[in-house]
Amino acid sequence: MSDFKRIAIIGVGLIGGSFGLAVKERELADDVVGIGYRDETLVRAEARGAIDRWTLDLEEGVSDADLAVVCTPVGLVPEKAIAAAQAMPPGGIVTDVASTKEVITGKIEAELPDGIAFVPAHPMAGSEERGNENATAGLFEGARVILTLTDRTPDAAADAVHYLWERLGARVERLDVAAHDRIVARISHLPHLIAPALVNAVDEASLPYAATGMKDTTRIAASDVRLWVDIFRDNRLNVLDALRAFGVELESIGEALERSDWAKLARCLERARDRRQGLSDDE
Asked: Rounded mean pLDDT of 261-282?
C-alpha cells in the first residue's frame, strides 16, 4: 500500500504522464489529478489513463491532495511548488523532478509554510521527446532517483517519497544537494551542451551525410531548448567547471594531433574506451 491517497501531478508531460501511468498501473493512489495549462494536454493524459481527473486551477487541484509532484520545466518549479504548498492541507508533501537542486530547493524552502514538507527529487530518466503522448509506465523501471534532502526535510516525508519511487521500480539514492548538482553537471548537463556544439560545428555541406555515429552522438541536441537554458542557468557554475574539464581533454587530444603523437592519442582513446565499457547501458 502507498502512503498517499490523492496525488496531484503539476505538469502532465513526458515525466508527469509517465509518473501518473506508473502510479495508476501499480494502484499506488486512490485518485490522481492532473494540473496544467492546456485542456487538450490534460484530456489526452486522462484518455491515456495517466490521471483520473484534471483541472487548470492549481489551488483546486491540490486542495485535497496529500502529495503534489511538480513536473514542470525547471524555471517554473519554485513558483508551482510554493503555490501548491500554500494550498495543500496540513501534512501534505510537495516533491519535484527537476535536474537541478540547490537553487530550486533554496527558493522553495524559504517560503514553505508550516505543516508542509518539501522532498527534492530527481529521477534520472527521460527522453528528448516531449509530451504525454510519449509517456510510458515503465520509464522509471530500473532508473536512479536521487533525493537531495536538507535539514528541513522531515524524515517521515522523505521515507514516504523514497518508498513511492521504489514501488515505481526505481533505485533510490540520497545525496547532498551540492554533490548532486556537481555530479549532474558532468554526466548530464555537459553532454547537453556538447551535442549542440558538435552539430553546429558541422558545415552545411557536410551535415546531410551524417550517419549513425553522428546521429547517435548528437541525439540529445533535439531536446527542449527552453528547459535546458533554465537548467544551465540554475547550475551555471558547476556546468562551467565541467566545461573547463572537457576543454582540458579536448586540448590534450588536439595537441596529440598537432604533434602527430599517435601514442598519446591512442592512450586518450584507450582510457575513454575502458571507462565507457565500465558503464552499464541500463543506467
From this structure: 89
Mapped to the 3 state alphabet, what secondary structure does the chain carry? CCCCCEEEEECCCHHHHHHHHHHHHCCCCCEEEEECCCHHHHHHHHHHCCCCEEECCHHHHHCCCCEEEECCCHHHHHHHHHHHHHHCCCCCEEEECCCCCHHHHHHHHHCCCCCCEEECEEECCCCCCCCHHHCCCCCCCCCEEEECCCCCCCHHHHHHHHHHHHHCCCEEEECCHHHHHHHHHHHHHHHHHHHHHHHHHCCCCCHHHCCHHHHHHCHHHHCCHHHHHHHHHHCHHHHHHHHHHHHHHHHHHHHHHHCCCHHHHHHHHHHHHHHHHCCCCCC
- Condensed to tens digits (0 to 9), the pLDDT of residues 96-113 reads 999 999 999 999 999 999
- pLDDT at 188 (0 to 100): 93
Q: Which amino acid type is present at position 184?
A: V
**Cell, residue 209:** 551525410
Closest by Cα among 125, 108, 127 to 70: 108
Domain match, 107 and 207 both: no
* 157 and 239 housed in the same domain: no
The model's pTM: 0.89
Q: Say which residue the cell 521527446 belongs to.
A: 129
Q: Is residue 194 part of a domain?
A: yes
Q: Are residues 18 and 77 in the same domain?
A: yes
**Domain enclosing residue 263, as ranges:** 179-277
Please, are residues 70 and 9 in contact by the beta-carbon 8 Å criterion? no
